[in-house]
Amino acid sequence: MPTSRRTFAAAAVAALVLPLSACGSGGDGGGSADASGKVEGDITFQTWNLRANFKDYFEGLIADFEKKYPGTHVKWVDQPGEGYADKISADAAGGTLPDVVNVSPDLVAPLAKAGLALDLDKAAGQYEKEYLEGAWASHRIPGTDGTYAFPWYLNTGPLFYNKSLFEKAGLDPEQPPKTYDEVFDAALKIADKTGGEVATLANVPTIEDFGRYGVPLMNKEGTAFAFNDAKGVALLTRYKELYDAKALDPQALTATPESSGKKFLTGAVAMNPGSALDLANFKKQAPSLYKNIGITDQITSTGHVNMYVMGLMVNAQSGRKPAAVAFAHYVTDAAHQMSFAQQVAIFPSTAGSLDDPYFTKEDGTDETRVRVAAAKSLKDAVNYTPVLFSEQMKTELRNEVAKALQGKQSPEEALDNAVKACDRLLQQQG
Hints:
Order of helices and strands: HEHEHEHHHEEHHHHHEHHEEHHEHHHH
Number of helices: 19
Helix content: 40-55%
Shape: globular
Strand content: 5-15%
Structural class: alpha+beta
Oligomer: single chain
CATH architecture of the domain at 2-156 and 306-378: 3-Layer(aba) Sandwich
């Protein structure tokens, strides 16, 4: 989502599923899941593209941990965003994974399957209640037991809409659509009133859209995808209706967050996800849009918005598990997540933190308007992207969706083909 990508690069990076040469059936890879014992020794902590902007924060955090636990030493390494998945894959295959690793759910899945991610339900289950239920659950892998990373920071973003465009189409600008069906109805009205000059949406449906629409994405065993059911077909059919009416931007098939943002900025699109940074940009570059900006929750027909999650995984083969678990918990506890959230536009995954006035009270600034709106929706948010859904799978889905929108195949055929392709890739992950 543009929100996360612009405000905090790592938060919305969709990483490749790792082509690990290591194999295993999950669990702790033959290493003990027991992380009890004295917290001592040298450990390595790896982050994902954070040193440039947060060097002082992490150096202070590490110094405080080492002071709390005399006899420990934390070596911090930071990897660039580019090639991060490949770096972890190489370390996993070579037996050189750090003790504590910054991961997203899709990155931790192959590591857990290879027996390289410590099962925290066994090793640190006493901490589960400290985190939001949805955040802790986000690092579980379908078809396996266990939780394989501490939840760290969360991100989401509200949806911006252009009140003047809604008003011109005869829609109530103070009552924006909340569900997909409401958006589709509003979009068709706006396209009709403007002769197809103004689209409401600028992006084709992604796996998160199917999730927010209430489509089952996988079977419970995690062995096959299921988004080609009747509800999934209904969603894509509606998108096809929008595309034909130009209520979905004609260039949605090749849209990027940047191109969608520009369309919204110029009034060619009525709704678009964004962040506080976007509001500042509107104020400077498009004052009339800024004056008419509306902020609402992400569209969802389930009542739960999508969230992006980052986590800290403990290497199951670490020789210093007590220190590694203690440090991963220390970084992700309520106090440290709160201090980190006050430095950057992310949100803590710890229970109760989102009730802090920092996330509930507006002070009239654009930054707090967006922060409060996003924080409110995060309390019961869900990570809709299946942890086993790789970049290749996202590409397969996007390609089949494009064919359906262009009329080259039916929505049902498109989703059947996408599921077949994704199931094939899933088996290759094996």
